[in-house]
Every structure is written in structure tokens, then in C-alpha cells.
Amino acid sequence: MNLHQIVSGAIGAVNPFVLISVQVSTGYATNPDGSRTPSYTTVCGVSAQVQQLTGEDLRHLDALNIQGSTRKIYVNGNIDAIVRFAERGGDVVTLPNGTQWLTTTVLERWPDWTAVAVTMQNVVPARGP
Fold first, then answer.
1. Closest among 76, 1, 7, 10 to 43, alpha carbons compared
2. Strands (DSSP E) along the chain, which ranges?
3. What is the pLDDT of residues 2-47, one digit of tens each?
4. From the DSSP assignment, how many helices (H) and strands (E) are in the chain?
5. Angstrom distance (rounded) from CA 95 to CA 41
6. Contact at 8 Å (CB) between 78 and 14?
7. Could you tell me the maximum CA-CA distance found in the chain, to the nearest angstrom?
8. CA distance 91 to 26
9. What separation, in Å, do the N-terminal and C-terminal C-alpha atoms of the chain show?
10. Which terminal Cβ of the chain has fewer Cβ within 10 Å, N or C?
11. Does domain 17-120 sit in CATH 3.20.20.80?
């Protein structure tokens, strides 16, 4: 049973869902100099909700020594942080405003949805008059 789907109407009335694109990590290629170049498959139109982190989430990230601008994103579907045994990096989320966020840790995973902590990777320049 997808409890998130049941309550999403009420939640969306307060904090609307947005459509994001997710670059799903597919691993990496090793270059001749030994450096690695990540590879991704892009999935567009994923329904998500961006929220601030709770105190408990912040303590979790603090224990992982994660710094920077962070948010919590609820995603209909599954996305991942780093999966070392599969040799994949974290998935990258692009929000409607163009900012990109790296999935740094999975906070909750259910069959139909996932809550992840993300860290901002770039800043979109402000548009002047």
C-alpha cells in the first residue's frame, strides 16, 4: 500500500509537487590517466516534493560529515545515493529552477517512493533586469 500516495493530495495543497529530472548513475568509465568519468541515464518528468530537512535528518547528515546547502526530496519511485559495491555514484536531481543536487543519502525507501537528502552542486545565476 502506497501511504505516500494516499496523503499526497493533502501535502500537495501546502507544498506543491514539482516535476524534476533525475540523472540515474550507470557507473563510470576509467580514463587512460586513471581518472574516472561518471555516466548517467536521464529520466525526465519525475514527480517530487522538495522540503527542508528535519532536525533528525540534520543529525544524520552531521554524522556523515555532509556540508553545504541541503534539502530533502520525496520522489515517486526510487533514486540512490552512492552504491559502492555496484560502482555507481549518487543520482543527480535537476529542479525546475535549473539547480542540480547530488543525492547524498537515502533517508527512507519504500516500494513506491523514496526520501533522499540532496546537496546542491551548482548555483543558477540570478537574472537581472
1. 76
2. 18-30, 36-51, 70-76, 92-94, 100-109, 113-120
3. 665 666 665 656 678 899 999 998 888 889 999 988 888 999 999 8
4. 2, 6
5. 16
6. no
7. 53
8. 9
9. 49
10. C
11. no
Q: Give the position of cell 501535502.
A: 11
Cell of 74: 520525496
pLDDT digits (tens, 9 = 90+) for 53-110: 878 877 777 766 666 788 899 998 888 887 777 667 789 999 999 999 999 888 888 8
pTM of the model: 0.77
Other beta carbons less than 10 A from residue 9's beta carbon: 9
- How far apart CA 124 and CA 35 sit, in angstroms, is 27
